[in-house]
Specification:
With about 575 residues, the chain is mainly alpha-helical. The chain has 3 domains: about 70 residues, no CATH class; about 350 residues, no CATH class; about 100 residues, STAS domain (Transcription Regulator spoIIAA), CATH 3.30.750.24. The protein is about 60% helix and about 5% strand. It has 28 helices and 9 strands. It has a 5-stranded mixed sheet with strand order 5-6-7-8-9, sandwiched between helices. Strands 1-2 form a two-stranded antiparallel sheet. The chain has a two-stranded antiparallel ribbon with strand order 3-4. Helix 25 links the parallel strand 6 and strand 7. Helix 5 packs across helix 20, helix 5 packs across helix 21 and helix 9 crosses helix 17. The longest helix is centred in the first third of the chain and has 25 residues.
Length: about 575
């Protein structure tokens, strides 16, 4: 069995690396130079370029990543994928059932949202560990925009998928780089607390009209006397059981003195299996029965365009948040390899589009499920197909037995799963290091907690972007006084907001009435405004009788061209220094 797993791992590794070009390398500029047979450079127009790409085998293989691992697929790999897919299904099923109420939908809709992702991602996905399906973040945001209307939720998923696919097709993944890790972490923590808050009423068995962090907790204390003790008791016991089962794998009971013995290995595997199946175990214990609901009832006969008008900013926020989650997890598992962001965006978009026709809410990758998939030894994305087949079986067999799963048990499962996504360590680290990231992190978290998670994400990102722009204008200028001249050297590229700092330093140095050497060798880029302002300052100083020598790269001098006429400019500090000494 060890040899089988090892050969599967080797095949998967080779299958991933073999002939696997960087996807972004296939998205070349539409006009480029190309050598003909005589070695002469000729310009290739856009139409010819597109036709050449469409005829390229690598172009199509990059868009169907399954073509890399299918030729190398073996029975041993299938066994590994089957084990991983089955194990992951035990996590997907209870999570899907638990997240559906967060979106205001009946329990079976969580299973519907988990069916197609594995099949589609196996064809278009690039990361074998990823497990795509419903998540707490997407579920609660879907409710915020679509409410409990299944038709609106499916329409939201459809247009979310279209937007994500277009972003992937246009290679717009770089836009997500403007959302920093502290903002993402604060956003996730705020959502986790919001999700926990939304389940408090179910845990205590109390019904009262309230949504939002403050309203729910105020309502809880006002209605605390109406608490259902059986519901609260079963919920608390469930959380304790979940905690103990999860910690079971860290306990060495029954493993024996030799950790390498067969007994110890078998016991460890059993403990690990129980720990990742904890949610499923709790739900099965409390399961009773339900009426069947046809999947055809999910989508109503209303015009999707009319629903679209009601979704508003959800059409922007859901694609953004889904892609942030998905690409963060894909980047984590890509390791040292470059993540193929555009292909992942397109794959997620196709999953959303197809899923909307079977009543799926918005989905994305889940870190918890992906971790289970990876630790189960998945070999290729085909493991998701196995998961999907098991979920189809669960829908067929179990859909008539969902209604009587106690609400308190579902609340307990969701609350427990959310605790692990609250990151307190980041906040402590930012406070200790007095990092400037603390401000956008706190704004994102507090706005997300007390107002709305979407506003927190947008405003936190804008604040962090403004801070980055502000810091880029804080140009550090090194001033060194020599015997016969003064050297002035900025530490970075010159952009128009920062050139005033350099101009002030030049004017101050000019008061010494010694030659000034301005070294721009570290400034690899000068925008138009900064270059014209700098040149005007140099000419003004020279008119006052102070000689200024400018050192810049040859390509910079060629780009500036005419404005340098009449100035003393050189391509190296040594040449400029010799000129001053001479």
């Amino acid at each position: 069995m060890a040899d089988t797993a090892e050969s599967g791992n080797k095949m998967a590794s080779e299958g991933t690396k073999k002939d696997d070009p960087d996807l972004e390398s296939t998205m070349e500029p539409l006009v480029l130079c190309k050598e003909n047979e005589g070695g002469v450079h000729v310009e290739e127009n856009a139409l010819t370029k597109v036709c050449r790409l469409l005829k390229s085998k690598e172009f199509w293989k990059a868009r169907f990543p399954c073509s890399y691992w299918i030729p190398e697929y073996r029975f041993s790999t299938f066994i590994g994928d089957t084990i991983a897919g089955t194990t992951t299904a035990l996590t997907v099923i209870p999570q899907g059932i638990g997240y559906a109420p967060l979106a205001g939908l009946p329990l079976q809709y969580g299973l519907y949202a988990s069916i197609l992702p594995g099949f589609i991602y196996a064809v278009f996905g690039t990361t074998k560990e990823l497990s795509v399906g419903p998540t707490a973040v997407n579920a609660i945001m879907s409710f915020n925009y679509a409410g409990s209307d299944a038709g609106k939720a499916a329409t939201l998923a459809l247009f979310t998928g279209i937007i994500e696919f277009i972003m992937g097709f246009l290679n717009l993944g770089f836009l997500l780089h403007f959302v920093s890790d502290p903002v993402i972490t604060a956003f996730s923590s705020a959502v986790a607390i919001q999700v926990i808050t939304s389940q408090i009423k179910g845990l205590f068995g109390i019904k009262y009209p309230a949504r939002g962090f403050l309203n729910v907790w105020i309502g809880l204390f006002q209605n605390i006397k109406k608490t259902s003790l059986p519901d609260l008791g079963s919920g608390v016991v469930s959380i304790l059981i979940l905690f103990m089962i999860r910690k079971l794998k860290e306990c060495k009971v029954c493993e024996g003195p030799d950790p390498n013995a067969m007994r110890a290995k078998v016991i460890k595997k059993i403990k690990w299996f129980l720990s990742i199946s904890a949610n499923c175990i709790i739900i099965i214990i409390e399961w009773v029965g339900v009426e069947e609901t046809s999947i055809k009832e999910i989508l109503d006969s209303r015009d999707p365009i009319q629903i679209l008008q009601d979704l508003g900013t959800g059409l922007v926020m859901l694609p953004l948040v889904s892609l942030l989650q998905h690409l963060a997890i894909a980047k984590h598992y890509a390791g040292s390899k470059k993540m193929k962001a555009s292909q992942e965006m397109s794959a997620l978009g196709l999953i959303q589009i197809a899923g909307s026709f079977v009543g799926s809410m918005c989905v994305t990758a889940s870190f918890g499920r992906s971790a289970v998939n990876a630790s189960s030894g998945v070999k290729t994305p085909f493991g998701g197909v196995i998961t999907g087949l098991i979920i189809i079986l669960a829908c067929a067999v179990l859909s008539t037995y969902l209604k009587y799963i106690p609400t308190s048990i579902l609340s307990a499962v969701i609350i427990f799963s959310m605790f692990s996504t609250i990151d307190v360590n980041l906040l402590i680290t930012l406070i200790k290091t007095k990092s400037i990231d603390l401000l956008p992190c706190l704004v994102t978290f507090l706005l997300g907690l007390f107002y709305s998670v979407e506003s927190g994400l947008i405003i936190g990102t804008l604040i962090h972007s403004l801070l980055v722009v502000y810091l880029s204008t804080r140009l550090k200028v090194c001033v060194k006084d020599e015997d016969k001249f003064t050297i002035i050297q900025p530490d970075r590229e010159l952009f128009y907001p920062s050139v005033d700092s350099l101009r002030s330093t030049l004017n101050e140095a000019a008061k010494r009435k010694m030659p000034i050497l301005v070294d721009l060798s570290r400034s690899t880029y000068l925008d138009y405004s900064s270059s014209t302002t700098l040149i005007a300052s140099i000419k003004s100083i020279e008119k006052s009788g102070t000689k200024v020598l400018l050192v810049l790269a040859e390509d910079q001098a060629q780009a500036l061209g005419g404005p340098l006429t009449g100035l003393n400019f050189y391509y190296s500090v040594e040449d400029a220094t010799l000129e001053i000494i001479a």
